[in-house]
């Protein structure tokens, strides 16, 4: 049932190229520059008239929501807020019928997310679901939605659900952008053609697994790790840290790279591994200067760079290369080595990768 893999998590990491294709298949026609998503198309006026989109979710799905914020604001120019469902539901939030709430949930059963939806509905907002489990409570409770087609996710640590959520959010952002006239037909076509290349690029990344494993072996005994990224890859830094915490029980924190100097920099010494996402677009020069700050404090730098990078390679202790793509799509690639890294570290430490202690696959209690 694990399809020849040692763990469900590894199987699910490797399923991502297919899961991403399954998620966009039938929804985008790259050469024609068309995106079809019934859940959006049937409510287009609501989306076009929305004053604000509020994304609610928990955990990894909340990280996907943050990527969604960057995508929707960048392309569709609609203001977006991302909230932890647990905070949203209890803080008497201001929600009106001019708001659209997007709830993201792999399981579709997360209690806090479900309660946030009910609250938003009671205040008149239109609620759109991005769920993986068909017919789940959240899928039923929302006014419309788009399923991720990741297939069953068994490993407690979410992997393919995350990348397929980002795929759906990318399509939503591009669709709304094109409807609003923020994106020309030819630019939309270009983006979709690049999206179509993502699964092959993920496939290529999965092949460098040995390199990631070598890095895992070097840092597996670390007590603390930092993950840094900027822009679209800031949420990936958060997600990288969460994956490591969850399955290897190593303390890790994700930060926007520029926030490092406002506190976490005090932690840096020669025992501190720091994973930095430094792809060639997205404030590259600024990330390079963040890396130099780490280097001058003797921190160990593991950088995720774009193929062909030379600048970061000179300063980092290890580099992992990702194929070139649109900046907005880089989270779909930068996430992969971080998933593999956590996996290998957890296996090397003898942890229960698929069922980490204290965690449940769906959190149906608040
Ligand atoms: C992380 C993880 C959790 C879930 C969170 C939300 O690997 O599995 O953080 O992402 O409990 O779950 P869903 O998406 O089912 O609402």
UniProtKB/TrEMBL annotation:
<feature type="domain" description="SIS">
    <location>
        <begin position="215"/>
        <end position="356"/>
    </location>
</feature>
<dbReference type="GO" id="GO:0005975">
    <property type="term" value="P:carbohydrate metabolic process"/>
</dbReference>
<comment type="subunit">
    <text>Homodimer.</text>
</comment>
<keyword id="KW-0315">Glutamine amidotransferase</keyword>
<feature type="active site" description="For Fru-6P isomerization activity">
    <location>
        <position position="361"/>
    </location>
</feature>
<protein>
    <recommendedName>
        <fullName>Glutamine--fructose-6-phosphate aminotransferase [isomerizing]</fullName>
        <ecNumber>2.6.1.16</ecNumber>
    </recommendedName>
</protein>
<dbReference type="GO" id="GO:0006487">
    <property type="term" value="P:protein N-linked glycosylation"/>
</dbReference>
<keyword id="KW-0808">Transferase</keyword>
<keyword id="KW-0963">Cytoplasm</keyword>
<dbReference type="GO" id="GO:0046349">
    <property type="term" value="P:amino sugar biosynthetic process"/>
</dbReference>
<dbReference type="GO" id="GO:0006047">
    <property type="term" value="P:UDP-N-acetylglucosamine metabolic process"/>
</dbReference>
<feature type="domain" description="SIS">
    <location>
        <begin position="43"/>
        <end position="182"/>
    </location>
</feature>
<dbReference type="GO" id="GO:0005829">
    <property type="term" value="C:cytosol"/>
</dbReference>
<dbReference type="GO" id="GO:0004360">
    <property type="term" value="F:glutamine-fructose-6-phosphate transaminase (isomerizing) activity"/>
</dbReference>
<keyword id="KW-0677">Repeat</keyword>
<keyword id="KW-0032">Aminotransferase</keyword>
<dbReference type="GO" id="GO:0097367">
    <property type="term" value="F:carbohydrate derivative binding"/>
</dbReference>
<dbReference type="GO" id="GO:0006002">
    <property type="term" value="P:fructose 6-phosphate metabolic process"/>
</dbReference>
<comment type="function">
    <text>Catalyzes the first step in hexosamine metabolism, converting fructose-6P into glucosamine-6P using glutamine as a nitrogen source.</text>
</comment>
